Fold this sequence. Notes:
The complex is a heterodimer of chains A (310) and B (245).
Chain A: H1 2-14, E1 39-40, E2 47-49, E3 52-65, E4 68-69, E5 72-73, E6 78-89, E7 92-103, E8 112-123, H2 126-130, E9 138-152, H3 159-162, E10 181-195, E11 198-212, E12 215-225, E13 229-231, E14 234-246, E15 250-265, E16 270-280, E17 289-307
Chain B: H1 2-27, E1 32-40, E2 49-56, E3 59-67, E4 73-82, E5 87-91, E6 96-98, E7 109-110, E8 113-114, E9 116-120, E10 122-131, E11 138-144, E12 158-161, E13 164-170, E14 174-181, E15 184-190, H2 192-197, E16 201-203, E17 209-210, H3 219-231, E18 236-240
Parallel strand pairs in B: 1-9
Antiparallel strand pairs in B: 1-4, 2-3, 2-5, 3-4, 6-10, 7-8, 10-13, 10-18, 11-12, 11-14, 14-15, 15-17, 16-18
Amino acid sequence: MNALRVAAAVVFCAAAVHAQELDLFDPNDFIDPRERGAVFKDSGFGTSEPGDAFTLTRAYAGRVSDYQWRNTPTNADLSFAHLTTNFYRGDKQLNLKLTVLEGNTEARVPAYRGTIQFGQYFVTSERNAGASKGDSDLRMSGRWLVTLAAEENTLTPQPQLRANAEFGAGASSSDPDDPTFLYEFGFEVDGYLRYRRAGVVGSIVWMRRKVAENQVIDRLTYVYRLPERPVGNVRLNASLGFGGERNDGWQWGATRALLVASYDIERLNGSVNLAYGPTVVPGARHRNVYHELAVYVDSTLLARLKPVRR
Amino acid sequence: MTSSTSTLRRSAAIAIAIACCAGANAAAQCHSTGIVMVKFKQPSVKVEQFPIRIRTSAGDRDITVTRDASGKVWREDVEPFHIASSQLVHADVPGVRTGCNIAPEKDFKVGRKCVAMYVVDCDPVWSMNVNSTREGEAFGYRLDSKIAACEVAPPDFQTAATPRSILDIGAEDKVIVKVRRRESFISVLVTQKVLRTFQGTARFSQLDPLPTTETPVTAYTRYLKQAQADKNRDLTFSMAAGGGE
Lengths: 310, 245
């Protein structure tokens, strides 16, 4: 039985990747509720003690080259700003995010994107999860997360591009049926699996994007996170993602690594970050390898703890 | 041609002589000696003299060893004792943690004389003051020591309260400090090197959080831990002068 649980957990975490699909400037917001003092029920689902409520607002701003939008290389150099607020209470989590991207006019990326996410955490039974001497060394905590995102529709030719388009007269005028926003809906499972001294964090993300009436694109991503490593005053984070996209049929093999070096600046209440995200896209028409690079600062605008008593 | 042949012969003769001497030397085992020598693996000890205790088959002896002309070895002449059964129980070097219960090097000689040579691990010690705005703030700490000195506390968390000085921390030691916040523990890693990067004084919330037994430290967990430390009370760690209990 124990071996079965280990195997199931390994398979689960083997399927894990990054929650936010590896945007260079959107770090993992996974916080085990036990870190806030929450106590899970014996079943591992639901809490008997909610712990402290925690609200965190963070801002990110910087410059990125060769931006990777979702699973699509854009060849665009952009400036970006990203504001995120996370509410953690009991075993629940609510995220609100706003992203603004500004690039050259040829950049077919949305100028803005809003995201709302709701998640719930769970753990393996407390006896094994919290005990230092249990009958099992396997410890696991996880989270499911539902995402709804809306962003500017860039699949519709933009006015200045339409004028030069060779689609014929019909395409050169704005189609009133073109939606202003495109919506995405997704589901994600994050897991942290610890076996003896080894641990792995990851996520499986499925996202569905409606691009036209009766036309959807599915993305499935799977990401491993390596543990953070401090090197002197610099913190290093690395992730590795693998995914596929289904339009007419599934196309697999897109692989993406993410390396972020962060240097904390107390006055900023945040850090300066240098991020590198090489991406391999098999079967691409022009090139297969993209080198996304970003420099950005982040800052904590609000970090508030509030005791919650039942 | 003649010259090179004679050089070759001379080299061969020297090689044979060295081999014979080495063989004879190895054959002559050291059983007892009246010379005690101590050498440190790390070159951080500068004192002229320090006391040691050696355990021999005839009982324990307290000896003071003195630095020799090379500056790298401390020695003393004593009543002869059986080398193999001896042990350096401990060395009392000011400001330095040393290894203990060290067996002598086997068949060690200086010239033709047998010597009881003890090679000792060492680590300079320092002390750390732990304070907080609220006196009596409880915390736990544990030393992960590089050198297994006998007097070092067992690797379990010891409970303490502020203000508190933690003494005799090895320069290479890791100090894990944890505080309890309701049902949760927050741990940080403090080392002498880390404190130096903060000019000798650091707050709990400035230090990197360590993963607890069941949770990874993700970027966001860091912000939570910082908020937890800031909100309630924030321990302060500062380097003090080198220790000694």
